């Protein structure tokens, strides 16, 4: 019977230790549940911030793509306008050179006419001079 009482005492001790252990584990479980709830809330906040950041990056990438497309379009237009400007400048230079050539031609014609008139006048003066032979 001593053995049975000893075992009973041992079981009571183990039962008490189990109750204390169960109480401690229950306390830890409640703390962990509170901690889990807090961590879930924190995780949701972090995920919300991440989603905001991801939307911002996506929007930024989209804006970057739009700007790059616009820059490419403007660059192409700039090249076209530069080519057109060079063509117009060349045409203006050709027109100016043609105008100068026409003015030079008019001057040449006028000078040739003046030379002819002067030659005729010199010839006329030589003919009027007494004793001088005519001819050049």
From TrEMBL:
Presence of the UniProt keyword Coiled coil in the record: yes
Coiled coil: 1-128
Gene3D superfamilies according to UniProt: 1.10.287.1490
Molecular function in Gene Ontology: syntaxin binding
Keywords assigned by UniProt, alphabetized: Coiled coil
A Pfam match: Taxilin
Keyword Transport: no
Homology family: Belongs to the taxilin family.
Name of the protein this chain belongs to: Uncharacterized protein
Organism of derivation: Strombidinopsis acuminata
